[in-house]
Amino acid sequence: MAGTVRGRAPARGRYPGFVTFPVIGMVGGGQLARMTHEAGIPLGIRFRLLSDTPQDSAAQVAGDVVVGDYRDLETLRAFAHGCDVITFDHEHVPTEHLRALEADGIPVRPGPEALVHAQDKGVMRARLTEIGAPCPRHRIVADPADVAAFAAELAAEDGGEGFPLVLKTVRGGYDGKGVWIVRSAEEAAEPFRAGVPVLAEEKVDFVRELAANVVRSPHGQAVAYPVVESQQVDGVCDTVIAPAPGLDEELALGASELALRIAAELGVVGHLAVELFEVRAADGTPRVLVNELAMRPHNSGHWTQDGAVTSQFANHVRAVLDLPLGDPRPRARWTVMGNVLGGDYPDMYTAYLHCMARDPQLKIHMYGKDVKPGRKVGHVNTYGDDLDDVLARARHAAGYLRGTIQE
Amino acid sequence: MAGTVRGRAPARGRYPGFVTFPVIGMVGGGQLARMTHEAGIPLGIRFRLLSDTPQDSAAQVAGDVVVGDYRDLETLRAFAHGCDVITFDHEHVPTEHLRALEADGIPVRPGPEALVHAQDKGVMRARLTEIGAPCPRHRIVADPADVAAFAAELAAEDGGEGFPLVLKTVRGGYDGKGVWIVRSAEEAAEPFRAGVPVLAEEKVDFVRELAANVVRSPHGQAVAYPVVESQQVDGVCDTVIAPAPGLDEELALGASELALRIAAELGVVGHLAVELFEVRAADGTPRVLVNELAMRPHNSGHWTQDGAVTSQFANHVRAVLDLPLGDPRPRARWTVMGNVLGGDYPDMYTAYLHCMARDPQLKIHMYGKDVKPGRKVGHVNTYGDDLDDVLARARHAAGYLRGTIQE
């Protein structure tokens, strides 16, 4: 163990005999934790979970579960005692608590100095701009008058009206929540009501959305997955295609390099998803702008479970333990991930049988969550040589499970 | 659920909300249970474990663990209450207990009438002979004099001496335990000391060992994995190559058909491993003889975790729940599994780092077991187009982890 989770002896006292394999403490019991546990089992890694309830997605399938509130420092401390490293299913743990754990001598990965860029969109934009990463034009705005001023500035640069603009609370948003598209200063009152600072961004006229996923370890080893296309419906990820079809080779390379550079500059440890807009300049030259960062396994990387030599989850585990990283290369020409959202009918099991019978190659990943309309309850992966076929199979299965496709 | 685990409503009362996914009760906490749980997580299946101790391989990673003795019927009954189906990590549960569970209305898969063929080598040989499956010549023997008589009979048929012979206790043996090779009647006293019936078999002069793995569901759907070559060292599986290199196509097809027929005739539900000897007739014609049967996921199928579209563990889960089976086809030209046995040095973690760094494509599966010399503590899978390379990588990793290779 010496030199792997640095500065700490492994928590071997908790297990009998000579086992020296480390314990990962995972904060948050959602599906990302569930799938990280799944990926850690073959690695022989011990997994300890801090979960809101015993019914959470990951808590159903893990052995060492602490039920408690991650917002409470003493709960976090008690949980972290006996763990070799702490990592996360979500970005909501308060920065000061992470600093306190570090002060206690517990490695936190990604660490609070990196994680703040995934927690606070204002900090993220400022830092990305500082390191020269291409971003949409943006400004922290205090009120609707500020929004109008920012719109006027964009209008002066581009011609046109400046609106519509995108407003985001700098903290707390996900899956389209905490995001507003406003067409005038009058429409801009709502985002300010939460009392959280608001970031205004130009509404990017993008060709499509991409994601560049990389994994970085504490000693600086890093791997890049192929850049993927991510298709959103109503602000929620619907389909991911790996690799992004028809993507300009130089642009793909540039996007991966950008993600690796962001990971290094921000000191990220573990999986980093860089969500990108692909845009075309007036002369037709393609380029990318950074939309969002996520410092954990990410929906745009779920395809790697069945489509890559090493999944994002396995590489996240390896990274936070400072183990050598696994090969991120694809195993198939095309892999497609389709998110399974809850539909109106709560029992998915009958639909599930039908999908298995229809497509014996289908890879299903269910999260053990109650079905609620629009809720992410699972995903499917398909792979093969023919993109049309691979896409059609994933879309059929996701639609059939949701109940929007009947045959 | 209706119609899948037949005759029982799903145990949904144990879980909140509308979740109707079934609960598998797994008897035995070894690595097969561990890897079955791992495979069940993406399927959304609830997993309940009956384990000898809380430290058993599977008990470390599962959420719903009952610690108790499977030989005690009341323990089994209490465990099975709330499970939709019972399946096994090993074949040691007494037949009368399985019948009692069935009488209670709990589906047991494989059922006791099938499982007895994997529990009792005498019953297995009698039944296989009855259905015309090719077996080594064999006889139940009562004492060394019986052994001598059987040897004399073989000598009369073949010329030669009849010896050496293989003696096996009909119950309780595994990994070379409960098996003796004797060169004379005088050497044949030991096997009779346990008071268990003894089976004598001719010592087959085989070319190599093969395994034909199939999975069968209650409604009779079945899939066959490619026939593999299994290399043993000191009676313990060392390396598995999928598919078996240079295997005669007709023989491979015949071996798969034989395994499917045995599964159907014996009413197997779940994974069935048919261990085979490949032999050559005097005229050079290759054929197979059945060596052993195992009715559960099997060491000769571990390669499927990384080498097949659907792993043996996922298909075992699907079969015992009567879900449609997944595609058993290989994903790579060659996949090699190398067993990791414990060596003299109890800490494997440092070696583990080295193996990961040396081969980023290596797939490691650790069981969370204490390292003891000769004990199976994990396995590695490698895959690719070049068999020599794939074999060398698996052998290096397995040897390095054990400590028999130093660089």
UniProtKB/TrEMBL annotation, chains A, B:
Catalysed reaction equations from the record: 5-amino-1-(5-phospho-beta-D-ribosyl)imidazole + hydrogencarbonate + ATP = 5-carboxyamino-1-(5-phospho-D-ribosyl)imidazole + ADP + phosphate + 2 H(+)
ATP-grasp domain location, by residue?
125-321
Instruction: Provide the residue positions that the database annotates as binding ATP.
Output: K121, K168, E201, E202, K203, V204, E209, N291, E292
* Keywords, alphabetical: ATP-binding, Ligase, Nucleotide-binding, Purine biosynthesis
Secretion signal span: none
Q: InterPro entries annotated for this entry?
A: ATP-grasp (IPR011761), ATP-grasp_carboxylate-amine (IPR003135), ATP_grasp_subdomain_1 (IPR013815), PreATP-grasp_dom_sf (IPR016185), PurK (IPR005875), PurK_C (IPR040686), PurT/PurK_preATP-grasp (IPR054350), Rudment_hybrid_motif (IPR011054)
**What interactions and quaternary structure are annotated?**
Homodimer.
Hey, which family's this protein in?
A: Belongs to the PurK/PurT family.
What function is annotated for this protein? Catalyzes the ATP-dependent conversion of 5-aminoimidazole ribonucleotide (AIR) and HCO(3)(-) to N5-carboxyaminoimidazole ribonucleotide (N5-CAIR).
Give the protein's recorded name: N5-carboxyaminoimidazole ribonucleotide synthase
Native organism? Streptomyces physcomitrii
Q: Which gene encodes it?
A: purK
